Amino acid sequence: MIGLYLRHFFEFGIADEVHEAKAADTAQGNALGTLASAVDKTIILTGTLTGGMASDVFNILYRIDPGRMVAQGYEYGDAGIRSFTETYGVLETITTIEPEENACSKAKVTRRVKERPGASPLLFARFLMDIGAFVSLEDISANLPPYTEEVVSVPMEKPLAEAYENLEKEIAEALQEHRGNSSVVSTALNALLLYPDRPFGIGKLWGVAYDEETKRRERFLIADPADLDESVLYAKERKLLELVQAEIQNRRGVQIYATYTQKRDVTRRIESVLNNAGIRAAVLTTQTAPEDREAWYERQLKAGVQVFIGHPRLVQTGLDYVEYEGCRGLFFFKQVTRSPTRVRLGSSLAFGLCGSLSPLGLRAS
Q1: Which of 221, 222, 161 is nearest to 196 (CA)?
Q2: Inter-residue contact 225 to 275 (CB < 8 Å)
Q3: CB-count exposure of residue 319 (10 Å: 0-12, 13-18, 19+)
Q4: Cβ–Cβ under 8 Å, residues 244 and 274
């Protein structure tokens, strides 16, 4: 509507959380480009402009100032991103040489180029310095609650540790047998991350590979994780319960984040553990629309809920709640973990986390 009928009707266009528009062809990204082309000046806001890659800013820059990008010689699309990354980022070339099968054949050489974390200072100097105003937390720290980060390491008890080691061995054997099979890698990674938090009800892990005999993609068994007792309260859960009870005694609300919320749901397990301990808990799901989530929190608080549970992406922006439990992905990791450091908040927030593998705990007091 604005792009068609209201071009240059508005003097300013404002886009918050602009890093969400970094992808090449998304509704949000295209909307940003349309808005920027229809107004005289564009103001973009974000606390996480990049996730460590130079290419993260390419599409954003192209949408807010395409003239500069064209003048610098970058075309829109994959070719432009590649050229931009070669100049301002870090590229890694992986060369794979397969041995000769016989004297009449040549060795097969394949090269794969992938982007690595890193950005040149020239990226800031040429594209950001003259159009950006940068404010760090230190600039406004006098108005923020105290903030510290802590790691709480919780060793797995013997039955869980043994089951986890056996799962590791089975997965390692499958990886050796099916080198380069992406179905093994993705399934194995998720299983190893999930198992310490939910060592039951996972079921057999299957991969898929092309069978030369049948000329079809066939399933094969990767591993069969041990199905431990669901009625047992495991060490990580006991520590989490201890942290939650301490915060409630201090009259603080708690938010627990868990990344596995679908088929192998961890959030309902946490809710059950808390309810059995007499703690009122509620789970936020995708069934609550983004625009209704703040009202949902308010209703639950009025109903006496003490602990909220949900995927970190559901409260990535716009909400000011409390606890963190294992999220992956640098952009929303930064967003979620820094949610207590906002000017209007007082000292009633607490972050805490315990984990069996490599957890991160945060505390604002």
Answers
A1: 161
A2: no
A3: middle
A4: yes
| Paired strand residues for 93 | 113
Question: Going by C-beta distance under 8 Å and a sequence separation of 6 or more, which residues neighbour residue 214?
Answer: none
Residue 110 has pLDDT above 90, yes or no: no
User: Which option is the CATH number for 144-155+234-364: 3.40.1360.10, 1.20.1250.20, 3.40.50.300, 3.40.50.2000?
Assistant: 3.40.50.300
134: left (phi over 0), alpha (psi -120 to 50) or beta: beta
What pTM was computed for the model? 0.66
Q: Which three-class secondary structure state does DSSP give residue 208?
A: strand
The ranges assigned to domains in the chain are: 2-134, 144-155+234-364, 158-223
3-state secondary structure at position 108: strand
Cα 293 to its chain centre, rounded Å, is 19
Q: What would the DSSP string read from start to end of 28-55?
A: HHHHHHHHHHHSSEEEE--S-S-SSBGG
Nearest to 254 by CA among 146, 362, 153, 143: 362
Q: How far is CA 168 from the centre of its chain?
A: 24
Q: Number of helices and strands (H, E) in the chain?
A: 12, 11
Integer Cα distance of 184 and 208 in angstroms = 8
Q: What is the pLDDT of residues 131-143, one digit of tens each?
A: 888 887 777 777 7
DSSP state of 176: H
pLDDT digits (tens, 9 = 90+) for 265-281: 889 999 999 999 999 99
Q: What is the Cα–Cα distance from 7 to 31, expressed in whole angstroms? A: 14
Distances in whole angstroms, Cα of residue 346 to Cα of each of 302, 305, 364: 20, 20, 10
CA distances from 179 to 96, 184, 192, 215, 342 (A): 13, 9, 18, 19, 47
Give CA–CA dist 255/320, Å, rounded: 10
